[in-house]
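Schema walk-through. Below, the input block comes first and the output block second. Nothing else is stored per chain. Lengths vary across the set, and this one has 95 residues.
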Amino acid sequence: MQYLANTGTSLGIGKALAWKSTAKGRNLIMAAWHLVELNEIRDSVMERQDVDVIVDMNDLSAPGKPAKRYGTMATRDLSVLTNNPASTINLIVRA
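--- output ---
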């Protein structure tokens, strides 16, 4: 089973990409910092589409978290990886 892995899924372009890809029947690994939003998107997508959706909430700035994310994705057959680091950009702009 192939997956599209999408970072920054909880808002903006990442969220739109999640909706578009699952509407086309793609299974999805959603990654972002915002667990509540990820779970809401997952539940809403799975109500409408017959796809598998995996939630991966990690703060990649924390020790060991990049390795954990890699572990989540390395066990899946990834067809596409998109990187939408909107949260990181927001933090930089606010600082």
